[in-house]
Design goal:
Elements: H1 2-18, H2 24-38, H3 43-77, H4 80-92, H5 97-109, H6 114-131, H7 136-153, H8 158-167, H9 171-194, H10 221-244, H11 252-259, H12 261-277, H13 284-317, H14 320-328, H15 335-350, H16 353-364, H17 368-371, H18 375-385, H19 395-404, H20 408-436
């Protein structure tokens, strides 16, 4: 009955949004309350779960999304995004734009948290789309596929890194195997799949679509790339320090503070305010107006993501992920396939890739030694399963839908299907690699 109640809650959420045309934030609140009652959470605890879920998710994301929106708006309005887009097109050519986006997403996605990479690079997608009259979804999916794969497969991202530690795997070997599986997965889910998405009607947020500027008005190439990608440089630098420095060093707490994604985005915004703004004769009041406009455009996105966090927390507090894992544990299948299946089902039901992966790890860990399966491949199998079919209960689904401004139907046809391709092709790659290692 537990699984049935989860599906009923999600079905109600879908109907409220698609049939009654209710605002997604309100639909999430109603569905979360319904799920709480159906799954047996005490009535007096349901409101607490909802508040905890909203606060927990926004606590991690609000600084990143708000600062990222401000930075993206400044990069667009200053002409830096146009300069970056022109440079990429000069290198790759308009015909190979999806490959350019894929490479950008892969390189940036390895050190960056997914949400940081999304808010940092999606404005670039919109600029390329607008400037070269290309469909936004067609341009964006290869980049998002790369960001998603690096988030699910590759250390030092939180979930793969935690799985490496839990299974006693080797971080370097997992990263190497992960790249071997990731590259073909991204190619299939990115540039190849994107060819089928050219007709999807997307109207990206106006805040990231600045009007083209004359060549003389654009910032320099170095300034444009440096200012827009400074978060990448900062995260890479702090990550390298944390991996190699003495934990007892007096600098360690400071570097950890600077390396927090929220602080990275704040520092990067302040830098860009000077390099792309003040230094190029923008007045401070004009810059602040740009930031206010960016914040207004993403207010509803923040609320919708908070709603997704509420539903996720209700499902977690009900113990549904553990129930699913316990029911599937006894299946007589290959350990890699079993791990992927458990993770995929929890992911679809709960919506969180990290929760799905770590819940499965707790179930699978005792079997690792006896099964003889390579723990590095097990990390990748779980990582692939954790990306399966992102839909209504996943904040990433709504982040994509609202930024690209596409319908629910087209979000499923593009974003959800891309995530499913990543999960399935990723598992296939792990199974092929299992033959040789």
């Amino acid at each position: 009955m537990t699984i049935l109640f989860v599906f009923v809650s999600i079905a109600v959420l879908i109907l409220l949004i698609t049939w009654l045309k209710l605002n997604p934030f309100l639909a999430f609140l109603i569905s979360s309350i319904l799920a709480g009652f159906l799954l047996g959470i005490p009535p007096q605890s349901i409101a607490g779960s909802i508040q905890k879920g909203m606060g927990g998710l926004l606590g991690d994301l609000v600084i990143v999304i708000v600062m990222g929106a401000m930075l993206g708006k400044l990069v667009a309005e200053s002409g830096a995004a146009q300069r970056i887009a022109d440079t990429l097109m000069d290198i790759f050519g308009v015909k190979n734009v999806t490959w350019a986006m894929m490479v950008t997403g892969l390189v940036v996605g390895i050190p960056l948290f997914y949400n940081v990479g999304f808010v940092l690079l999606v404005p670039l997608v919109f600029t390329v789309s607008y400037r070269f009259k290309l469909p936004a979804v067609y341009v964006g999916i290869p980049l998002l596929a790369a960001l998603s794969v690096t988030h699910g497969f590759l250390p030092p991202h939180p979930s793969p890194a935690a799985l490496v530690a839990q299974f006693g795997a080797n971080m370097g070997l997992t990263l190497t195997y992960g790249l071997i599986v990731a590259v073909p997965t991204i190619i299939i889910a990115g540039p190849l799949f994107a060819k089928f998405l050219k007709k999807i009607d997307a109207k990206p947020l106006d805040t990231f679509q600045a009007k083209p500027k004359a060549e003389a008005e654009l910032p320099g190439t170095f300034n444009s790339f440096f200012s827009a990608l400074f978060p990448v440089f900062l995260l890479v630098g702090t990550s390298i320090f944390n991996l190699n420095a003495d934990k007892e060093s007096s600098l360690a707490p400071i570097i950890s503070f600077i390396g927090d994604p929220g602080m990275v985005m704040l520092i990067s915004l302040l830098l860009a305010t000077y390099t792309l703004g003040v230094r190029r004769n923008f007045k401070i009041p004009a810059l602040m107006d740009i930031y206010v406009a960016a914040t207004k455009d993403i207010a509803m996105i923040l609320l919708i993501i908070a709603g997704a966090g509420a539903l996720k927390q209700v499902l977690l507090d009900s113990g549904v992920s553990q129930t699913i894992a316990d029911n599937l544990q006894g299946w007589d299948v290959h350990p890699l396939v079993l791990a992927w299946t458990i993770t995929a089902i929890i992911r679809v039901c709960v919506g969180s890739a990290t929760v799905a992966g770590l819940t499965t790890a707790g179930i699978i860990a005792p079997m690792v030694g006896a099964s003889g399966v390579d723990p590095n491949l097990l990390v990748l199998a779980i990582g692939a399963g954790s990306l399966m079919f992102s839909h209504f209960n996943d904040g990433g689904f709504w982040l994509y839908k609202e930024y690209f401004n596409v319908s629910v139907k087209d979000t499923i046809k593009s974003w959800s299907l891309m995530e499913t391709i990543v999960a399935v092709v990723g598992l296939a790659g792990v199974l092929v690699l299992d033959i040789f290692v």
